[in-house]
Design a protein that fits this description.
It contains 12 helices and 16 strands. It is of the alpha/beta class and about 425 residues long. The structure holds zinc ion.
Length: about 425
């Protein structure tokens, strides 16, 4: 994003914060009343945003002014939602289907006999019913614009969308610009709109922080031999700034919809992240391999216009609630489970052959299975999960062992699985398979 775009984003953000959101009369009016007589429904995914780095969730830097405006306008905001997985593909598949990863099966599958190596990602099965298809059945036109290329036809996550734009390298404001072009040229004003936007400025490679951002200190240019991942302060700076750009893009996207009449018949908005990010906790970076809190605790924001917005029910809601909130404005009470299965050679920092993690939450108690053992941690007493205690299977209850078994089954390759030859070749070249 260039300087002019940032200035534009700032102006949009300021206009938004000044009351554009709350106003029933948009600042700009298009020439038709869009959306027939149904509300516009929007899922806005801020990829890789952990809840505790949002100012709306108590973080000291002003990373999420738009979310705060939404809350002041009546939105229900949760900062403690549980992502069903720690990476993009299974988590989006869960939001799109209302199913946990072991049920939709869209994650890495093992290759080889020992469940020790991940290769292809199993795409979403065609017989899965997606939320986009549900909205199509209701007469909606369905649109997906994603800066994350994994949310695309490559993974089947485009299933049910009439109009899709997914590509790597798109900034959050690029996504808004594509939305603006769709709104001006491609949408049918006679049909209501279901829209999914994915922005990932908080996902590496990070945007450059321009000079003059008051809350990011001037640290000088990074040394060539000092990659950002080895400098946690710099990493946090660029990560936080990426969150701010995502939040600004949310304001801009709403401004585009509002200015073209796409909220005149009402707006149902859900803002989430699909998973979090490690910023050095447990000596880790990135996100794919565990169920530790920094990678699975995400925001879940729900807003209805006209209001009032019903509250999201339950502590530690599953991110799957996004599915029922979008469909019906209700909290479903999905199971508080998370599972991840990344595989050897794909950020498996421990270098083991057993990379599956499965977790369940009971109030502040969190049970985890990993390395063939169950452990428990009280997140109130030990929020950083430094001292988990080994527990027996009987102490864990019935849900987690059953889900673990299901996850192990769904991680096995089946004859129907499509093996991505290019990926297999790459794995061979890297020495992961012979
Ligand atoms: Zn993601």
């Amino acid at each position: 994003m260039g300087y002019r775009e940032i200035v534009f984003a700032g102006i949009i953000g300021a206009a938004f914060a000044a009351g554009v959101l709350a106003s029933r009369e948009p600042a700009l009016r298009w020439y038709y009343q869009a959306g027939a007589d149904q509300p516009t429904v929007v899922l806005f995914v801020m990829d890789t945003v952990r809840a505790d780095h949002l100012s709306e969730c108590g973080y000291e830097r002003p990373t999420s002014p738009t979310l705060s405006v939404l809350r002041e306008s009546g939105a229900s905001v949760r900062c403690d939602a549980i992502a069903p997985s720690s990476w993009t593909v299974p988590s989006h598949a869960s939001m799109f289907t209302g199913l946990h990863p072991a049920d939709h099966g869209t994650h890495f599958v093992s290759v080889g006999e020992d469940v020790d190596l991940s290769g292809p990602v199993r795409p979403l099965p065609q017989d899965a019913v997606t939320i986009a298809e549900r909205f199509q059945d209701r007469g909606y036109q369905t649109v997906l614009v994603s800066s994350n290329r994994l949310v695309s036809s490559a993974t089947g996550l485009d299933q049910g969308f009439d109009l899709t734009w997914s590509g790597g390298g798109l900034s959050a404001m690029d996504v808004v610009e594509i939305l603006r072009r769709f709104v001006r040229g491609s949408l049918d004003p006679e049909r209501p709109l279901f829209l999914v936007l994915n922005v990932m400025d908080a996902h590496g490679p990070y945007p450059t922080v321009p000079p003059g951002v008051g809350w990011v200190p001037e640290r000088g240019p990074a040394k060539a031999d000092e990659p950002v991942l080895n400098d946690i302060e710099r990493l946090v700076d660029v990560y936080d700034y990426g969150i701010f750009l995502d939040d600004t893009a949310l304001a801009a996207a709403l401004y585009v919809l509002r200015g073209h009449g796409w909220t005149d018949q009402g707006l149902r908005l859900v803002v989430v992240s699909d998973h979090g990010e490690f910023l050095g906790e447990h000596g880790l970076y990135s996100h794919t391999t565990t169920t530790y809190e920094p990678v699975v605790t995400v925001p879940l924001v729900y807003y209805e216009e006209p209001g009032p917005t019903p509250p999201i029910l339950g502590d530690r809601p599953s991110l799957l609630e996004a599915h029922s909130l979008l469909l019906d404005g209700t909290s479903e009470g999905y199971r508080r489970l998370s599972a991840t299965f990344a595989g050897r050679g794909l950020n498996d920092v421990e270098g083991t052959t057993d990379s599956m993690w499965v977790a369940e939450w009971h109030d502040s108690q969190k049970y985890v299975w990993h390395h063939g053992e169950y452990s428990a941690v009280d997140l109130q007493a030990d929020p950083e999960e430094m001292s988990p205690v080994g527990v027996s299977v009987t102490e864990v209850g019935e849900v987690l062992p059953a889900y673990l078994h299901q996850m192990q089954e769904s991680g096995q390759a089946s004859p129907e699985d499509h093996v991505d030859e290019a990926l297999i070749k790459q794995l061979k070249e890297m020495g992961y398979i012979e």
